[in-house]
Amino acid sequence: MERSLTSARIQQRIGFSLLGLVTFATVLPVLLIIGFIIVKGAPAISWEFLTAMPRNGMRDGGILPAIIGTFYLTLGTAIFSVPLGIAAAIYISEYAPDNFLTRLIRIAIINLAGIPSVVYGLFGLGLFVLFLRLGTSILAASLTLSIMTLPVIISTAEEALRSVPQAFRTVSISLGATRWQTIWRIVLPQAMPGIITGIILGLERAAGETAPILFTGAAFFLPRLPQSPFDATMALPYHIFVISTSVPGMPIQIQYGTVLVLLVFVLGMNLIATLIRQRARARRQW
Amino acid sequence: MEVSLRHLKRPEESALDVSRRLQKRPRWGEGFIQAFLFFCGAVSILTTIGIVYELGKEALLFFQMPGVTLLEFFTKTEWQPTVGRFGVLPLVSATLVTTVIAMMVAVPFGLGAAIYLSEYASEKARKVLKPALEVLAGIPTVVYGYFALTTVTPFLRIFFGDAINIYNMLSAGLTMGIMIIPLVASVSEDALHSVPNALREGAYAMGATRLETSLQVVVPAALSGIIAGFILGFSRAIGETMIVAIAAGAGPNFTFNPLKAAETMTGYIARISGGDVAYDTPDYNSIFAIGLLLFGISLVLNIISRRISARLREVYE
What we know:
B: MetI-like fold, 2 domains
């Protein structure tokens, strides 16, 4: 097969330039969207916008209840999903024997990760709101978001636990530590940065989700801040949905301002997760 | 645990007896902890069962209502539960149109980015681009939905004029495609990355350029993993709610014209949730039937995707 080296080189250069362009084009929208929202939303941000109650049918005033609500929901999700998720990951990575039940657990986790978030919302409505009679409340919404977040936390925590070298466990047990002592004092601390990164990424998703809280805890408008976990709450993502679809004559600035606040909230969590991961990678000695 | 107990062995004992003798002291705490951890692990199974039960129970109520039959549900093209029209096809068609549009964006861009990142990009470029893709994946979908309605649709109006509705499937689909790119890209990149270097080196030795190697050797070798990624993306697009709820339209419409407004399965569920729907009404029961349908679709797609990617692992590990 005859062919000139130069034409192959040119072909290659063109090909990879195109692929590079495609890659750039995938990152471009994110920069565009974020930039656009910052430019349009920044003028709306003021101390009053962040700390005042909405006025005039939400067309005026601030978005404090939505900010507080998203904070409560994220916190509530963390309370339920973090201990449960880490415990499940420890079981799967450190204890589970290789049998049918373990495989079933694994398959269940993978499948749960692929279920649409709106289906979790329906499940939460059926189980927490109606059957357990929690009503549309912060508690019911947090539980629903926890169930949705669990697969993310479990799989990242499991990966972090598995990446701790086997020698650490062997040495600890050979020194007379029990299995749990080994896990608690040796394996878990080593895996912690990876676990925390996974937790933050999972909670980030929960904070930005709208569909699961539609039926379980989100309120259109509330004149006061939630007083207990059994109150419904406003939340930033749901607030965006509401003001962009169901409130006529909504000032565009408030819309963009709300989107910007949510974006800062979520991407701030993302940034923290990235920083933790990078620092842990730099300090890791194995 | 690879700990040799041979030096502790008495003549009459087997290795098993030795380990038993050394473990004589019962440790209730350890056993309790293990049981607790097992329970936490089993929560995922309980959740799966719970979802099937909960959705199934309510969906059953829906199908027991007078005038609702499975045949009508899957074949009729009108969806108005309040007036007794129970054909799910308009919702399915809208889901299909938006999903196909999304895949037409996500597949070429996601795969292109994956090939570039895995086969060509310098370490420096990877360090910038991969976190950027992760940020893209972290943006809440309600933000994408808002972006679709306020930016993408007006942009499309420049080209289509009044032919395109304010709420339309094209804008929602395109935006959903952007949302899915990171998922497709990262799964595909993993697949490309797992192709052994020997294949690349073999191709170079035959005189192939890097581009030829990437496209004609590495991509075919990773194909099952790449397709698994496409299926995951497809599944995500079908279940995506907020983008279509905001931008695609609020009202069932049996059409395959992407310029028209139409409500998807997820969009319908979201809209019903917005109003104060009384329990045990057709509207209320119907969202569970549709939820069950969504659950079934994503379950099947998940299983197919896992089967396909397991094949890739068998070949190279």
